[in-house]
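Summary for the steering committee. The consortium agreed at its last meeting that each partner would contribute one worked example illustrating the joint modelling workflow. Our contribution is presented below. We chose a case with several input lines so that the handling of multiple components could be demonstrated. No manual editing was applied between input and output; the record is shown as generated.
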Amino acid sequence: MEAQSRGAPAIRLDQIRKSYAAKGKGVAVPALDGIDLTVAAGSVTAIVGPSGAGKSSLLRCVNLLERPDSGRVHLGDLELTGLAPPALRQARRSIGMIFQHFNLLANRTVAGNVALALELAGWETARIGPRVAELLDLVGLADKADRYPSQLSGGQKQRVGIARALAPNPGVLLCDEATSALDPETTRQILELLARINRDLGLTVLLVTHEMAVVRQVADRVVVLESGRIIEDGPVEQVFARPQQPTTRTFLVDETGAVLPAEMAARLVSAPVPGGSTIVRFTAAGPAAAQPLLGRAAAQAGVDAMLLAGRVQPLRDQPFAAFVVELTGSAAAVDHALAAMTAAGAQIEVLGHVAPALRAAV
Amino acid sequence: MSPQLFALLSDATLQTLLMVGVAGGLASLAGIPLGLFLALTGPGDLLPRPMLQRSVGLVVNAARSTPFIILVVAIVPLTRAITGTSIGTAAATVPLTLAAVPFIARVVEAAVREVDRGLVEAAQAMGASPGQIVAKVLLPEARAGILRGLTLAAVSLVGYSAMVGAVGGGGLGDLGIRYGYQRFMPEMMLAVVLILVVLVQLLQSGGEALARHLDKRTPIR
Ligand SMILES: Nc1ncnc2c1ncn2[C@@H]1O[C@H](COP(=O)(O)OP(=O)(O)OP(=O)(O)O)[C@@H](O)[C@H]1O
Ligand SMILES: [Mg+2]
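What follows is the complete predicted structure of the assembly.
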């Protein structure tokens, strides 16, 4: 399939609903509850959300491994939900998919596994060999062509999975927790490979993950799913800097490290304490994160700033800062400092206040 | 041992091998597709036909729970119709085949069901048709399990073939009964048992070696 021009919708989901019949009980639980989602060609979209939110169900609805109860799925101009089985099989060849547990055939070599995708797509035998070699090159496994999957590491297996998915030149790649079975370093390498594929081949990537780190490293856009509904959706920088929903915040805090130490959280009070200090979460993306904004604003206002948690890390080639900070000073000075930070582009969330005695104790 | 007895033994061994081979081969021809049918058509399977699958399953179970010796007697008319006689090696092959078919069907079904569903899904995601899934995923991935099941079936057939000997089926069992028991020649009985033991060992280790060779799931050998 021709890679579509960037920006045109590659995938369009209209009002997707899906429930699974609950075993025993008669009630069906809705796993997807009216999902509308348009994915732009050439983009990397991450679907995140708590376990059981319906992420896998949603992804599997795209290639109709799971048939929605109602709603439509479009791939480019093609309505997949309206296709007869043979036409659907044909269409699936332009949608690659990779899996958490790789799903490689144990009794085929690395090359054989990649070749399978081409055999299934009806390629002539003569064209299969060169194409397999090309893909193994792309994923850096040219020297492992004759190994069996059991002789590979997890990261190498996922590379085979990626090569297999890309073999018939799909326009879309679906990834369900593709790095969840891998260690952090291998995850990073696989994500780099996915990013490179997206960049060089213009492939549209739709990925499911429960790790914000994955989102931070590869995604352009993040869609937050909860109880079968999209609760938040936006460019990664925006969602990271200004999460609107508590679920999104919870997810982000794990990734950004801007989490208040538990012993301190227990002593937070909602009203300012005379002589005490104010605890805030400071988030900034892009230029605002690159400057020594926090320290400067505090110093200029005559406020003492102490870093309690958090870090600066890259987000789509830009710095992204998230801290939990304790600000000590007069109420007016703290307000002044916070106003200066907000004016410079930072997001400030006041978590609460602590009594003065606490500072010595912690 | 006299050359005469030796000739008897080697003839009987050949007959046993022939019965096991022919019955095993014919039963595989029927049992493998039947097992595949059972594995593919259950509820939630690739080509669900739950009602039909259940009915076939019931017949298979009924055949498996019929004691072999009763099966031999019960199907005498069928045996006659096929081979023209109800005694001898050819006649014995009929009940042997019939007993092995449901057995093989069940072991093949089990082996095919052992294949990770994730592989079927991956193939479906790649646009595979049910036929392609069977040919390129299920059978190749289940081949070691199927082979182990066939080995098991062959070993059982050796045992059953000795049993049909008791009802005039020829082969080693027949020899053991007629000479070893009825004419009281313990050395003949011993020789028959030894040959059967060796035969089973060879089948088992041969089948296992081949299955291991075909099984690429774990690199440890
Ligand atoms: N085949 C199925 N049969 C019955 N219920 C199912 C099935 N698949 C999913 N569900 C249910 O649908 C809901 C959504 O499941 P889904 O697998 O899509 O969640 P998820 O977001 O991918 O979760 P996880 O992060 O744990 O993988 C869950 O409540 C789950 O129990
Ligand atoms: Mg899931």
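The radius of gyration of chain B is 20 Å. The pocket of magnesium ion (ligand 2) is lined by residues A 55-56 (CB under 6 Å).
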